[in-house]
Write the structure tokens for this entry.
Amino acid sequence: MKINDMLLNQLKLQNKYGTKLDDNNRNGRLVAGSKEYWGKDNKASEILERYQVPKTESNKQGVEAFMKNTEGENSLKLETVEIAASNGVEMTEENLKSIHEAVNSDFELEESIEVLVVSENQTDVALTKADVEKMDLPSALKEEIMKDIDKGMPPLKAIGKALGKALGETFLAKFDGKTSGDIQITIKITIEVIEVRFQQEGEQFDLDKLIEQFKALVDSGKEGQGSLLTTAAEVLAALELLELPRENQDVETSGMLAESDSIEVSSVTDHEDISEEIVEWVTEALGSVEMVAQELMDNINDAPGLKLYVVESVTVKMQEVAESFKIAQKNMLQTMEKALSEEKPLSTNQVKEVLSSVINKLDDVLMKSDVPLYTSMSMEKTLLKMSTNLQEARQLLAKGDIVGAKQVIKAVHGKLQAAIFKPSERKIQGFAQKQSDQFLQDKDQVQLQLQNYKQEGVSARNVLELFRSLGLNHEYEVSEKLAQLRSFDKEMKLDGNLKEVLHKLEQDEKQENKTVETIEKSLNNLNGQQLLNKQGQKNNQQTMFFNIPLVNEQEVKNMKLYVNSRDANNRLDWENCSLYFVVDLKAYGPTGIKVDIKDRGVSITVKNDDEDLKHVIEPLIENLGSVLEEVGLKEKEVHFAPLDNHKKFGRNMLKEQAAKEEVKVQSDAVIESQKGFDFKI
Amino acid sequence: MKGYDHAHGTSKYDKINDMEGYAKDLIDQCEDKSIPVNRDPKQLKHAVSTDLRDNIPPQLYFVVSGLIDVIQQVEEA
């Protein structure tokens, strides 16, 4: 299992289950079971009335059980009931418990990972028949393997035998007698290379030719000078041996783009160019030994043939991403051209539709496609700014300024046309590392695909990926994939997010008590966050809540993020919303940072009792202002205020009515206390 | 397509009235295919109502990322 090194080292040093209970848990003790929580004068009952939650028997039982069985102060538990009621979450004991855990405890990332490491070491792993069934292999090869498995041969051996046969037995002969280590890895790599190729090329796939290439590499490695393929020259040699799949996707050419258009059609539309460029970029990123991460080099040195697979899969992947960007780009350009056409002018409503369609597509590229995962952060910002600009155009249109709106569309069209997908070197290397790690792991386990939790630079997609890697979108994506797969009858690939792996462990009954406790606590926390983020809350409001792990060299700490926004068609309104970050800073203690966005103007209030923080954070926030401007936001004001009851303030943001009052009270207090403190950027 | 439309459009369940029925069905499907998910239908029905890729616009993620960056820099200073 590949986990952030820092975290692993940390885990080796520590072994302190259950010692990190937060203040609330420490103070809280089991409440006596005899107490009544539902009486006429009781607060829980009053809360439900206030939020118009039906006082059914099941709601009553849920609230009572939660109040009796969950540890913690009564006032905090009542607040949990209120937050659940305000968010329209059903009043079951489990729901309330999860929300209570998420809101009042930190998410213990280290402990969650620790149970995985411990449990992984206990698991006995072997390739299963089901794994082989899932493999996307040429049918003849697969049939042969399955036949042997059905006769009772272990799956790995059956694969090895089939490959050996395909390779004229020489393949297996090299590893005669060995049953583990090199041979397993080599067999896995070979089978994966075949899978990747087969997926790409379908029926045109030529197994013999690939095996020829592979054999040549294995031979050169075996005869060679120490370990296999350790030099840049050999990488280049491997690349030369690669027969890259040619694209056979039939992208329809644009009939809309007039030859005489002032903006030239960029070279991005030329398939051949992409192939060569991608190969060049991958070669550049992986070609120089010094540039590649040491760990990747170690892996490659230890596992013959690995580099072939890595280079091949990285190249194919980048090719796919470039292609998908090109298709989306073309599609968006064509859609915008409809709005710009002078021959067939569109009605205002039609232009509005064009804008919504392109904004959705751009946002999909940013949030759902692989493009931002492999390209530079500046490309992400460029696309983000385009989405913002088009939203401006939509507003112009709403005001009746169709000329102004079209000018914006034209400008965005030009920028998008000039955009080209270029993978960043660091991200190619990161992907290569991941590919290599996956091969050195056992395939039949649900594998934790942890992100590097430490954020590098400012990127929208990185934050989304952090949430996804924790599993906060897990169930939604599973339901989506199952709906998509229904019509294809294909196996679903597991995602490897933290929540998925924890659920798998939870369902495994062999766990020790302590492990079960940690798993439950972590899952409660994640489930609680998901409940708080449910759509369709009351009064056209949407609140959200996250526990964000902050990673630095010494430790992992938890930051709470509360979001309160108008519900704009099942979406948060990013132009008008409030965010509140709560974190305990190493040098400056408890801190709250409130971000209010109004008509894209950003006001930031830092709440902290240490005067020194102001000097440190002020220039950083000033710098943030210019970063935000790149995507169309404007930083307007920065305030500093005393800490006050900052945790309560955050929780209030999750309750609609109270939040509004509290925000108002707080902002008055800020203005009062800020004389001589405020500054504008 | 926002929210849980995919569930709505392809199944026999009415998304407003029977999200719990949908959740139970989803749990069964996941059990069949050994996909680990939250098996409490009263939690799952809420969890599948949100797609973090859709419900939060990229600009807002960007702001969050900007603040994380500031806080990380303060921690490292």
User: Anything to note?
Assistant: Chain B touches chain A through 51 residues (CB under 8 Å). The radius of gyration of chain B is 18 Å.
